[in-house]
Amino acid sequence: MAFLFGRRPRTNTVDLPKQARDQLSKFDNSSGASKAEELAKTLGQMKFVLQGTHETESSPEQVYQLVTGMIQEDLLYLLAVNLHRLPFESRKDAQVIFSYVLRFRPPTASPKSEPIALSYVINNRPEVFVELCNGYDHKESATPAGTVLREVLKSDAAAAIILYDDPTEGGPSAKGLTGIQPDARQSGRGVFWKFFNWIDQGSFEVGADAFTTFRSIKLLGEILLDRANYAVMTAYVDRGEHLKICMNLLRDERKMVQYEGFHVFKVFVANPHKSIAVQKILLINRDRLLNFLKHFLEDRTEDEQFIDEREFLIKQIKNMPPHASRADSKASTFGVTTTLRTETGSLAVIAGITGHEHGVLGIGI
């Protein structure tokens, strides 16, 4: 009579992933509606195992069994592929399941170790990440897929897999870390390049969520600062509106965002061939920038490279001529890298580009 007191029967955790796999495999036949109802029940049970309730805490042992069972049944991939076909409540449950499973570490694991399911996907099933991105192909799956992706992209390895995804004809649909070739010219068939279409041509739900994911600092930074994208980088540092976006990041409430924004800002300042627009913005804001940079991230007292870079930028801004000159109107990324290297000896590698809303430090252009 336990049900009279609001308790739920013990779930057979081992069977749940297999049940879900079987139910997903029968989605296409005439019994699809009934299978959808059965799948919804199974996903609800899985969420219960992972989350527990107010009355019952989740069991680490059961969670471990569920996570390993999902890996064995390839359920993360199947859920990612079929996310848009699930009923509304089941999509919400699938989102919760993804989030919990990709974060789970066994109690005995080191807090610094990678979650076991995330590690498995990175090394053995990178197609899961690609299919989550493809969730933007459908407005039904855009929000749950995007929510999971933004958590996944906190992992550098996962972000790299998405950035460098470039399937070959007849080859695998996604490559793990060992298949990544950062210096190779991309064909444009990779999933990253689909974001431009999802943002511009998708429905409102798709475009809004895709843009939120796209402006991830690490994601966009890796693309723009890849050697293969030299032309993109050159065009980026030539635009005044991009500098405004970058300056706005310096005032973000999150210190890591400020720090990553700084790595982009220094490229604009150190570029010996600044465009007229970039020069004007820096000159208009010169006094405020100099005062701001003096106290920027003062707590990074042990980061000698950052301190050197900050002092270098202060010097460059202070020594700018009083008026913008067309002599500096041709942007050159090579020139930026060379200058950074010779002036400080530590700026040859630059990382961290992102997008943001405009309006910072009194910018009026």
TrEMBL record:
GO terms for molecular function: protein serine/threonine kinase activator activity. GO terms for biological process: intracellular signal transduction. Pfam families: Mo25 (PF08569). Belongs to the Mo25 family. This is Conidiophore development protein hymA.
